[in-house]
Amino acid sequence: MVEPTQYDYELPRELIAQSPAPRRVDARLMVVDRERNSLEHKHIRDLPELLKPNDCLVLNDTRVVPARLVGRRTQTGGHWEGLFLEAEGNGFWRILCKTRGKLTPGETITLTDTEGREDTLLHLQTKQPDGAWVVQPEPMAEVFELLDRVGRVPLPPYIRGGNMIESDRDRYQTVFAESPGAIAAPTAGLHFTEPLLHRLENQGVTVCRLTLHVGHGTFQPITADSLSEHKMHAEWGSIGRECVEQIAECRRGGGRVIAVGSTAVRLLETAAGGGGTLEPFTGRTDLFIRPPYEFRAIDAMLTNFHLPRTTLLVLVHTFGGDELIHRAYEEAMREEYRFYSYGDAMLIL
């Protein structure tokens, strides 16, 4: 039985990045070579030296929405915070709530914008078994337009207690973000710039895109006694025929499929299915990649350094191997790499 405690480690707090590197491409990059059982220190800007013509780089083009909500309970004036999860249609949202006391159906929340001005009312409808509330905003508005007005960047709590500064609107977003819906960034993609992507394409690397909307479950620690008992969170994703065909062409040319981020890995592996043939896919995936798992869709992955005892770290261990990844994390701490969402990255070959 594989126990979650195997994925625990102690990280000095000063290694948790509180802001991104001044230039995206200057983030450090540890190259983890599984065949050579080796570790090498580079930077993101060195990727053109590490990737080859005919390789295929797979990006997640999800766009982070300003999902963190702040307001007060209309009747009592008590402070309230929330997190937008998704729109349910017919003007209803699913959100998480945090406040003192017990919320009741029929109660209203007065949202405040980033300047502290009262803006929108949320009517609480029902509380669902998973703890989320179904709410209805008043006045009605297009969901992402409303969130742009009243929402904050949903930073994880280990970055400044979750409190955004204005620069986070740009830096907690990939330069290729297109499809709104994520409530956390696909952080491995934060390191890329348009010039770097153009340089890679000019040397023969194919860049293709899929979409997986990162959900709030991505940071949740595994609390079950064994990995087999953990209930994986589901996230919506889509991989189109064009991306599938680009990956197939890469394979025919002898190139490697390199997934940027654990989210891209999960969607690619979901779309490959049991048969191992990659097909277009649209829907929700709750794939939990854990040992033993045979990877069917990817040859390499670029990923940040993850929180202990999380499904993301389990995925990385499963792909890279326990001994090598354990050694890589120890080396990263010794060399004072920056960890988590705004931190440095590793390329596992």
Keywords:
6-stranded antiparallel barrel; 9-stranded mixed sheet; 8 helices; QueA-like; 2 domains; 20% helix; 17 strands
Q: Would you state the CATH class of the largest domain?
A: Alpha Beta
Task: Please summarize the sheet with the most strands.
Answer: 9 strands, mixed
The overall pLDDT, averaged over residues, is: 94
The assigned structural class equals alpha/beta
CATH superfamily of the largest domain: QueA-like
Helical segment tally? 8
- What is the CA-based Rg, rounded? 21 Å
Structural domain count: 2
The CATH architecture assignment of the largest domain turns out to be 3-Layer(aba) Sandwich
The arrangement of helices and strands along the chain is EEHEEEEEEEEHHEHEEHEHEEHHE
Strand content: 25-35%
The rough form would be described as globular
* N-to-C span: 28 Å
In CATH, the topology of the largest domain is named QueA-like
Proportion in helices: 10-25%
Q: What does the model show?
A:
The chain has 349 residues and is α/β, with parallel strands linked by helices. It folds into two domains: 4-64 and 169-348, QueA-like (3-Layer(aba) Sandwich), CATH 3.40.1780; 68-152, Thrombin, subunit H (Beta Barrel). Helix content is 20%, strand content 29%. It contains eight helices and 17 strands. The chain has helices at residues 47-50, 143-150, 168-171, 194-202, 241-252, 262-272, 311-320, 322-334, and strands spanning 28-33, 38-43, 56-60, 62-64, 68-73, 79-89, 92-99, 108-112, 118-127, 133-138, 179-182, 206-212, 235-239, 257-260, 281-285, 300-304, 345-348. The chain has a nine-stranded mixed beta sheet. β8 (108-112) and β9 (118-127) form a beta hairpin. The chain starts with 27 loop residues before the first strand and ends with a strand. The mean pLDDT is 94.
